[in-house]
Amino acid sequence: MAITTVPGTTRPPGRREPYPSTRRRAGLGRKVRDNLTGHTFLIGAVVCFAVFSWYPMVRGIVMSFQRTRRGETTWVGWDNYTRIIDDPSFWTAWKNTFYFTVLALVLGYLVPFFVAILLNEFRHARAYLRILVYLPVMLPPASALFLFKFYAYDPSEAGLFNAVLAALHLPTSEWMQSPGMTMPAMVLASTWMNMGSAVLIYLAALQNIPGELYEAAELDGAGIWRRILHVTVPQTRLILALLAMLQIVATMQLFIEPLILANGAGTGDSATSVAYLIYQHGFFQNDLNGAAALGVIMLVVLAGFSAVYVRLTAKQD
Amino acid sequence: MAQDSGTRTLISQAQLERGRGRVIYWTLLVVVVVAFTLVFIGPLYWMVTGALKSGQEIAQTPPSLFPKDPQPQNYVDAWHNLDLAKLLFNTFYYATGAVLFQLVLDTAAAYSLSKLRPIFGNAILGLMLATLMIPAMVLIVPQYVTVIDLPILHVNLLDSPFAIWLPLVANAFNIFLLKRFFDSIPEDLMAAAFVDGATPLRTLWSIILPMSRPILGVVSIFAVTAVWKDFLWPKLVMPSPETRTVSVGIYAFSGGTPMNVVIAASVIAAIPTVVIFLIFQRNIMSGLTTGSLKG
């Protein structure tokens, strides 16, 4: 590892200096030097944060009120916002994104919780089951989505899903080619790819629940469902709330699923997401300012969700 | 682990060991093991064997469970037509650099925030953690604009690996993980090193880092998988065919390539992360839960 020499850290031999946190009555010079040392260690990361995170945040907001044409940047007020909102795809994209978020909450949020509860009860094959659930998380999303696109969601009966459905004498589906199935199919693929991390986090939370609580509930005659409802859920509610929030933020950024599974917009605009619209405006329609405005709108919506989350969790404590 | 620590879970151990409970337990266990194997390994099996089928066999109904006439040629075609060796090398190169940059810069920063605690340290930490609240998609456009014309330096980083390495250093989750770990290292140890005349750098190198191997491992593994799985950012900042990552390269070729070849390429692209996972699964899973849980 290449750590460059840090100026101000070499001390004359023989002088014993107390550790910074235990320093008392330290001279001004030494204080300055200790602070300088501390900031020298920080500087690399701080510069990266400043250039690639803090500055772009501000720049995004500034850009959304500007327009750059032929190298000339002018202030245009809310023009970018009105142009973006007037785009007929704007509302479709929000509708699709919300639909995906809600479907993903039902499927991708509840399923991992119950899977975790189930896995936590098993005394055998624990490691094996955990590895299985987490395996898809490690696949590159592009690889996994090509698998879904070509082999699982094939609209003929040669596709994996339709073959299974046909074998069970159930009606088959056109999957990505039918506008009504586009979103459920994307949620299914996305849940398969991502649920592993949620399951593992829940499992860790479940293991922190004191066993006496279940014992007491059982003595009071509570059945399995009531024990889940009155012991498991309240005991894990902070993690449940946190993961709900994180999942909403993640699913609202839906991008690679429509891009690969639906070639972007999908049949009849059924797959267009807000993130895909940002990508379209910014990198295909040469409208980086409009894309920045859409990004700011997305930030405001997600900040709204976060505010609701903070309100809800604060009330419970 | 329930049976290790002896704590009881939803259903008591006694109930699972007796009569009806025992039958239900074993039935459920078998059902779940079979179902999970089908759900999570099944698609991977389908992917690996599907890529061995001929174009004709893929289109056949109902699909065959085993390739009747295996075509390893698909994998060979994928390797040559997409120049996978080049794509894999690029991705590996970016991943290695990302690990080095994150280990050096994030470790130094977390060490400073945890042990040196310079003035404004907490404010800086707060600003770093605040970035966790900003969704990546919101930043993608201004980040791109920044990378094609870096402020002050006016350098264009397109097609340069630094466009992948440096933004990944701005990873508040890593800083948080490392700082939490360093916080748990006793202050006395630091003070002792200091009394012996060790500089902060020496203390970091000889005392802190050797004790932090597990967390450094977790950070490295996450860095590798993040680069391997990332798609949109490398697609934007690595526009030339020579600098693409493997996921982006496969996507770029997916339009004009037979689908069994695309799938064969996807299988090859997935092998490194799956192998990393199978080797380091314990570290990955523990890192995932410690980082997210006890905040």
From TrEMBL, chain A:
Protein family per UniProt: Belongs to the binding-protein-dependent transport system permease family.
InterPro entries membership: MetI-like (IPR000515), MetI-like_sf (IPR035906), UgpAE/MalFG_permease (IPR050809)
GO CC entries: plasma membrane
Residue segments, region Disordered: 1-24
Keywords, ordered alphabetically: Cell membrane, Membrane, Transmembrane, Transmembrane helix, Transport
Topological type in the membrane: Multi-pass membrane protein
Pfam families: BPD_transp_1 (PF00528)
Location relative to the cell: Cell membrane
A Gene Ontology biological process term: transmembrane transport
Protein name: Carbohydrate ABC transporter membrane protein 1, CUT1 family
Residue ranges constituting the ABC transmembrane type-1 domain according to the UniProt record: 94-309
Annotated source species: Micromonospora chaiyaphumensis
PROSITE patterns membership: ABC_TM1
UniProt biased composition (Low complexity): 1-12
Automatic annotation (TrEMBL), chain B:
Membrane-protein topology: Multi-pass membrane protein
Entry's transmembrane regions: 23-46, 92-111, 123-142, 162-182, 203-228, 261-280
GO cellular component: plasma membrane
InterPro entries from the UniProt entry: MetI-like, MetI-like_sf
GO biological processes: transmembrane transport
SUPFAM superfamilies per record: MetI-like
PROSITE patterns per the UniProt record, alphabetical: ABC_TM1
Pfam families: BPD_transp_1
Keyword set, alphabetical order: Cell membrane, Membrane, Transmembrane, Transmembrane helix, Transport
Localization, UniProt: Cell membrane
Family affiliation: Belongs to the binding-protein-dependent transport system permease family.
Protein name stated in the entry: Carbohydrate ABC transporter membrane protein 2, CUT1 family
Organism for this UniProt entry: Micromonospora chaiyaphumensis
